[in-house]
């Protein structure tokens, strides 16, 4: 619930005018959101001046907020707006311009751009920034998407905030108001696409493509539509077989192609602006083209041809690896898998296919190098997949603000076309002049009253949207902005919450698996310390700790050769011990515990220090939060307090298990004599 602003609203906000196609739902939403924000801030709705939509009318003569689509603007405003938007490549771009006499114009070529601009003005209003300050903002990524791992039974795979917002007991069954609020929330951060079901498509969700379910999918799509959000479905590659309609799902069989064409036609009859399919194939026991001796380009292109006549796209996941590996074979390396599978296919995917690549080569660990497919693929549309839900980063019981990690990923220089070939440039499509690109985040919301279980986990959702729109934003600035919009303007609160958020990822990394090895978690649910939980398993997730050393040799010289998947100079940087960054050392090299890091510490001393420091950081966070009592509302205060206190206990557990594990392996005591359980 928003509180009124102490000084009310600027003069221009007291009136508004709207210009654009009459009754356009997205434009209506933009106007309604702005009016609602003004009402919340001042107690009064803005007076509606002109702008019966469709009527190009005159420029308002009194100060007001005039919003609309370029083509419908009164001529007095149109010229300046046209000029402002001339350089913007996206129709979703918006411009804000001051108007003579104290008014403000908000303009876009498309209604969706007006909606994003309205939320921009709402941010300015709440943050006390001048409304009319000129600006042009264009999304860096065309596709800004949330992937829900929701199941029809109402559970959420890797969900930590309650049950699904979309499903109950095997049905698409949702609270219209709640979903509408969710759509508002997503639009306010610029998200424009959503995959509504888990990439692991089970029996019921396979039927979402049928007449029995499509009207309900369409209802859900209808709830998102006014907020400019297009719905996607995760599909089961074996659908024609599993639905009992064909004996095969071979992508090169004409019957299969025809089946998918009919499925696509059917979907578009119900949902004319349907986004397309998200596909997990030949991965973790999901069916795919390999069954038929076909490759992933065969599979993706077949689906893409079915969607193309309707303007839909296929988002094909690159998360493909052998999950039946042998820990005895030290040459086998899961990290290599995505690159090895997809590089040979570069150039074979149709233009309406995007390959969705996880940020790292493994699986959303707290620290991984960037996937070498970014910058590797040059003739394929790619998308970056991030995990907003905190599967491996504290499951929303720990605070772990992920924007600083994502920012490192986006800023990472692949050197694919020389310096400046950042991941952000690759995934936007710009680096290689690709027609499509984007960013997807695995959603962290559920039906918990605060959406994300941990109130501070909302910052991750917020940051995802803001970075997908503009990867150049600064994570600390985003944290500050989120805090002010969420908890208000008390500078003491803002400093403390920003401090907690910014300290949280480094702290989590410090008290969990060290120096990039990852995976020291309990198998299955992936929470809590278990240093050898995955060490002798089939999943390909090893650290090879023994009495002398730890780490995975992924060099070309003596290891799995994974470093060879990067362009120079990154390849050499990781290949050599002398240049490999400390935080990734054990990802790339197997070293003795006495190896000296760039920091000057030995590996074992770093492990001990990091684990003690990590716990201290959480203790600091608890104290910093405790001092906010009385400065923020008691409900959120208590809820976060309880989780932070729990986090201290969990961090201590991590510290002691990991320190003892390594102490028992190597027998080297802590230089500083702190207690390590024998
Ligand atoms: C991880 C996660 C699974 C998920 C998979 C994926 O392995 O634990 O729950 O299905 O990633 O991204 O497909």
UniProtKB/TrEMBL annotation:
Tell me the InterPro entries matching this sequence: A-glucoronidase_C_sf (IPR037054), GH (IPR017853), Glyco_hydro_67_aGlcAse (IPR011395), Glyco_hydro_67_C (IPR011099), Glyco_hydro_67_cat (IPR011100), Hex-like_dom2 (IPR029018)
For whether the record's keyword set contains Hydrolase, the answer is yes
**Entry keyword set:** Carbohydrate metabolism, Glycosidase, Hydrolase, Polysaccharide degradation, Xylan degradation
Please indicate which superkingdom the organism of origin belongs to. Answer: Bacteria
- Extract the Pfam families matched here: Glyco_hydro_67C, Glyco_hydro_67M
Q: Where is the Glycosyl hydrolase family 67 catalytic domain?
A: 135-451
- UniProt domain Glycosyl hydrolase family 67 C-terminal: residue ranges: 452-674
Mind telling me which PANTHER family this protein's record contains? Answer: ALPHA-GLUCURONIDASE A
Spell out the family assignment given in the record's similarity comment.
Belongs to the glycosyl hydrolase 67 family.
UniProt name for this protein: Alpha-glucuronidase
Q: What is the lineage of its organism?
A: Bacteria, Bacillati, Bacillota, Bacilli, Bacillales
